[in-house]
Sequence to fold (202 residues):
Amino acid sequence: MNKLVSVLAVTAALALTGCASLVPNVEKARIDTNVKLAEFNSISNQYLAKATFAQVYKIENVTGVSVFYSADAYGSTCNKYGCTTNKLAMSINTSDVPNVMLAIDKYLKWESQAKANKDKISKDIITFNSQYNNALDYTYGFYSGNAVKHFLTVKACSALMGCMGTETEAYLDMTSVLALKADMAKLKANGYTEFNIETKYN
Fold:
């Protein structure tokens, strides 16, 4: 579980228990993105891009801004209280941008090389400890769907929760990787500055 999700969950729990003074201030806004998270579809036997939504969060006592991408995954998780749709998700904080950009640049280099050689490979690019949450590690990797279609993969692991399963690991094709690179450039340049725009409407 990433810190963004953890903070939001704790915020909700504290609010329900009436501990308003302990609830961190969270500002958020929906943003436009061309990033589309993909997931393997066993019927079509290929990775399909899903409708993906993005929000930016600025959380009290957390350095920088976090971008959170999410999409509905195949399947659902059920318990005695009901069922919830599985999610594909990834989050990136301002402080993690240098490592994410390194992973993107390496992916672009390997994609060109693998496509030219018609190679199919699966290899980690970088694993790094989150700059804003030392309990969380990210692994960005390279995965070939076939000899001409290659993906950037994103997986999060923590000592408490373990690693996300392969069914929820995020896959990004070339188009989405380039879109992610554009989003990261904007994040690095502090381009996300407008939050809680709903307060304009009274």
